[in-house]
Amino acid sequence: MAGRSRRGYLGVIADILRVGLGVPLKTDIVYKANLNFNVATKYIDELVEKGLLRIPHHSRRVYETTEKGREFLEKHRELSQLLV
């Protein structure tokens, strides 16, 4: 659907994982992925649980996209290109 302005579930995940490539704080994810704090927290917790995002430094609440998360981003990009 050309011109869709709303992201779906997988689009939000892809946005968070893209931000996670830079090892951001949760606040950075909220702003850069354009989410509210509560929604971001739910997604982040799910992505950590599924192994797509990890917390590399326990003293600072930063996040990092894992290799599995990078694979997801590549597949998401490939599928998105099929729709254009």
Can you describe this structure?
With 84 residues, the protein is mainly α. The protein has one domain (9-82): Winged helix-like DNA-binding domain superfamily/Winged helix DNA-binding domain (Arc Repressor Mutant, subunit A, Orthogonal Bundle), CATH 1.10.10. It is built from four helices and two strands. A two-stranded antiparallel sheet has the order 1-2. Helix 1 (9-20) crosses helix 4 and helix 2 (26-32) crosses helix 3 (37-49). The radius of gyration is 13 Å and the shape is globular. It starts with 8 loop residues before the first helix and ends with a helix. Mean pLDDT is 90; it is low at 1-5.
Q: In a nutshell, what does this entry contain?
A:
By secondary structure, the protein is mostly helical.
How much of the sequence is in beta strands? Answer: under 5%
State the total count of DSSP E strands: 2
Identify low-pLDDT runs: 1-5
Supply the number of helical segments: 4
Q: Looking at the structure, what is the overall shape?
A: globular
Give, in order, the helices and strands. HHHEEH
Head-to-tail CA distance between termini: 9 Å
> What count of structural domains?
1
| Gyration radius, rounded | 13 Å
Q: What number is the mean pLDDT?
A: 90
Name of the CATH first level: Mainly Alpha
